[in-house]
Amino acid sequence: MVLIFVCLLLPCFVLSSEHNLTIDEDFEIEKQLKLLNKPAIKTIVENEDIFDCVDINKQPAFDHPSLKDHQIQLRPSSLPVGLFDNDMIKSSSRIKSMEVGLHESCPSGTVPIKRVEKEQLIGMRSSFKQYKIRPSSSSNVNDDASTTQRWATIHTPYKPYHQFWYYGASGLMGIYGFPGMQDTQFSSSGFWIANDDDLGHINHIVVGWAVDPKYNGDKNSRLMAGWTCDDFKSTGCMNNACPGFVQVSKDTPLGIAISPVSTYNGTQRDIELFVFRDPTTLNWWFLCGPDKKLVGYWPNDLFTTLAQYGTRLEFGGTAEYIGNSVFPPMGSGHFPYEGYSKSCLFQKVKYIDGDSRSDDLPLLEGTPRSDSPCYKAGDFTGSDNANNYFYFGGPGGIDC
């Protein structure tokens, strides 16, 4: 009897040992998987990813205690003025603005949620970076001596020297792939909207694309978005790793792989992303692609200071590693001085003002910042062909 009992327990001990988990931790992971993966009305498989079409009113977002009585909003009450202006990039026919989405849509009344596998959830637990994709000006960055996150960005002036408020932002950024990235590395490009009126509870939203083998289980470049109301101390997450983001699109889920990507000195492929605050509901909407497809929104109830407005914006890239590794490439993996089709280009940098109008971010409002010799952000400049723009990125390495 004792032998049988030991044999029955053995698989649990083997699993726990392999991932440095106790049996209680393993049980907790199984419970979290049931919470994250809602019952599917239909399942869509693309590129080895599994997307469950779940009832829009029963998606993971509504597990958040602040959203128990939330009334879902299917469309913004209004769109920022100028958002759909015909301002297509004329600089080169080699630029391809990517339309991101599944080849097959979920049925009406359902939304696609990327299924979380057990290995991924274990990766989330062991990878601290997914909870700290913070802007470079975040207060905790300088307080945390152990951080291995690095940035190359353009940022707006900091308060209290600047009293300008932001109600959204957008940008068109190059998207690249890093097939040689290690499982202990992470690289992302995008932009942040933040409010740091309360330094103890810094609020921000981040959107962009990321390569994260530990979190995703592969080296694909993927659509990513995240939020926090306390600088990731105890709230917020990336994509759907915790409740909060309300998905409304039937075919553009967070975490979807983006392909094809740019090639060095070849065809450049870009992704255009938009975030703005609904002037009526105060929810923060996320739009994607040249057609400004509605992906979903972060309800106003998630935030404290950002429930009102953003106090600063930041555009560019971040890179990080864990364990005994080295810093990965950022952007295209090449420095800004290499220029077009070689370094990563971030253009059409815009903000939303208090009148819900989309305008180019003034050149004087964007200051380059980098905190490592392995990554750089070029000058924020402009031309008649490409609106405002800058290059950013670098190769990474051991001396960052």
Automatic annotation (TrEMBL):
<feature type="signal peptide">
    <location>
        <begin position="1"/>
        <end position="16"/>
    </location>
</feature>
<keyword id="KW-0732">Signal</keyword>
<feature type="domain" description="Neprosin PEP catalytic">
    <location>
        <begin position="144"/>
        <end position="400"/>
    </location>
</feature>
<dbReference type="Pfam" id="PF14365">
    <property type="entry name" value="Neprosin_AP"/>
</dbReference>
<dbReference type="InterPro" id="IPR025521">
    <property type="entry name" value="Neprosin_propep"/>
</dbReference>
<protein>
    <submittedName>
        <fullName>Uncharacterized protein LOC120280498</fullName>
    </submittedName>
</protein>
<dbReference type="Pfam" id="PF03080">
    <property type="entry name" value="Neprosin"/>
</dbReference>
<dbReference type="InterPro" id="IPR004314">
    <property type="entry name" value="Neprosin"/>
</dbReference>
<dbReference type="InterPro" id="IPR053168">
    <property type="entry name" value="Glutamic_endopeptidase"/>
</dbReference>
